[in-house]
Each structure stands twice: as structure tokens, then as C-alpha cells.
Design brief:
The chain is of the alpha/beta class. It contains 12 helices and 8 strands. It folds into 2 domains: 162 residues, 3-Layer(aba) Sandwich (Rossmann fold), CATH 3.40.50.720; 90 residues, ProC C-terminal domain-like fold, CATH 1.10.3730.10.
């Protein structure tokens, strides 16, 4: 894979870069635009080149075949403006939530419809190369650039492609925000354990290891989660008592409604960012 320029040097950029390096990409082929000196030092420590501004990087664009947009959605337009008209021969991958491909294309180029542009939504387990990323690209994306995208995103976990860009709002709500839901439930189980008389340190271990083990079992099993749940639930037993109480409280419905709210917010964010 050819060199990669990252616009933004934060945690997700560093996760991708570390994943690529672990897979054999020379660190010297990676670079990042990062104005924060502390963050830039972290990137430099990996062996990647850093630039304090986009203007410094633009004259060297021929060194990189791919440009990864790794800035916050609200910063995207300003971040890509210096590249206007200069990325027609590059693969562009955005990992910003909500920011739509058409908006990025018009910010980057007057005639952006044929740009090699991918929208991707990774999640924070990418930091330990255990993420899952939803990706979308228009019909203009070449097979070779699709392969490059796979190589880049697979460095932080699993990649799943979607046919419609609107589906990325749901991806954002499910897997993008999903780690927070899991942490929320780990926290709730930990708190419940403490309330039942288990000391805090042990409660945390029990909660985390339960989620870790159950997730690994689900990933390794051919059975769907509903079957795995039923396998743990003996009629009239302790698990059945807990699940009945949760069902009576409509916990599953509340959970689904929360995910729906996240999807609506992702769509609204895209609407707001696309106004300029």
C-alpha cells in the first residue's frame, strides 16, 4: 500500500497508523497534519512525519496515495479547504461521523463527483485493533482503491461495506456509539454487584470478565445470541428471574429507542454540516 497522509493526528489516526505499522507498512510512509504540539510528538514517536498545517503538507502530496480525514465533523470543511482541487489523484477516506460524502466532495473539489472518496465509521475498540468499521463508497471508487481501503481499515479490526450512505447513520448509532452502551452496562453490572455485597475491585473484575467472556463466546459460536441466552436461562432459575424483571421493564424496547435516537442525531448532524 502506498503512503498515507492523515489530516488529524488524534487517537484514531494513531490506532490506524500503529495497525498499519504492525502489518508491515514502513512508518516513514505515514504522515499527519496535527497543529497540537503534544499530539504531534506522539505521532512523531511512531516514526511518522508531521506537519503543523495543511499548507505545509500540500506541496508534498505526491508522496501519499491516500489521504485519511481524521478530524472532528465540525472541523472538516476548514480542514479540507487547503486541498481544494489537489486530491483528484488520491484516495480520500473520511472517518468523521455524520459528514456526508457529497459535502466532502464539494469542499474538496469543484467537480467532486468522480473523486475516489470513501466514508468510514470506525469505533473505539480500534485502539486495540478490535474495532468494526462500516464503509461506503460511490460507484466511482476503483477496485484497487477499494482494496487499499480494506487494507487500511482492516488494520484496526473488521470492515463491513454498505450499499447506501444513509445506512452509515445506523452504523454510527449501533457500532460507532455501541462501545459506550457496553461500558454503560458493564458499569451497571458492577454497581449491582457492589449493591449485592461484593467489594468494588472484585465487582469490576466480575463485570468486565463476564462481558469479555460472553462476547468471545458469541463471536465463536454459530448460534445466535437468542439461543446462547436461552442456554443460560433455566426455567424457574436465577437468570430467568432477572430476565423477567428486565422484560417487565421493557429494557429491550428502551435500548432500541436509545439506538434510534443516536441514528436520528447522526442524520441531523449530517444535515447541519451540509448547510455550508
Amino acid at each position: 500500500m502506498s503512503g498515507v497522509l492523515f489530516v488529524g493526528g488524534g487517537k484514531m489516526m494513531q490506532a490506524i497508523a500503529q495497525g498499519l505499522i504492525a502489518r508491515g507498512s514502513p512508518s516513514a510512509t505515514l504522515a499527519a497534519i496535527e497543529p497540537d504540539a503534544t499530539v504531534a510528538a506522539q505521532v512523531s514517536a511512531m516514526g511518522a512525519k508531521t506537519f503543523a498545517s495543511a499548507e505545509q503538507a500540500v506541496p508534498h502530496l505526491a508522496q501519499w496515495g491516500s489521504v485519511v480525514l481524521a478530524v472532528k465533523p465540525q472541523m472538516m470543511q476548514a480542514a479540507v479547504t487547503p486541498f481544494r482541487g489537489r486530491l483528484r489523484n488520491h484516495l480520500i477516506i473520511s472517518i468523521a461521523a455524520g459528514t456526508r460524502a457529497a459535502d466532502i466532495a464539494r469542499w474538496v473539489d469543484d467537480d467532486g463527483v468522480l473523486l475516489q472518496l470513501v466514508r468510514a465509521m470506525p469505533n473505539t475498540p480500534a485502539l486495540i485493533r478490535a474495532g468494526v468499521t462500516g464503509a461506503f463508497a460511490g460507484a466511482a471508487l476503483s477496485p484497487s482503491n477499494r482494496q487499499v481501503t480494506n487494507e487500511l481499515l482492516d488494520a484496526i479490526g473488521r470492515t463491513i461495506w454498505f450499499e447506501e450512505e444513509a445506512q452509515l447513520d445506523a452504523v454510527t448509532a449501533v457500532s460507532g456509539s455501541g462501545p459506550a452502551y457496553v461500558f454503560y452496562m458493564i458499569e451497571a453490572l458492577e454497581t449491582a454487584a457492589i449493591a449485592e455485597g461484593i467489594d468494588p475491585a472484585t465487582a469490576r473484575v466480575l463485570a468486565i470478565e463476564t462481558f469479555r467472556g460472553a462476547s468471545l463466546l458469541a463471536a465463536a459460536s454459530a448460534d445466535p445470541p437468542a439461543v446462547l441466552r436461552a442456554n443460560v436461562t433455566s426455567r424457574g432459575g436465577t437468570t430467568a428471574a432477572a430476565l423477567k424483571h428486565m422484560d417487565d421493564a421493557n429494557l429491550a424496547r428502551l435500548f432500541a429507542e436509545g439506538v434510534h435516537q443516536a441514528r436520528l442525531r447522526a442524520k441531523t448532524l449530517g444535515d447541519e454540516l451540509g448547510k455550508d
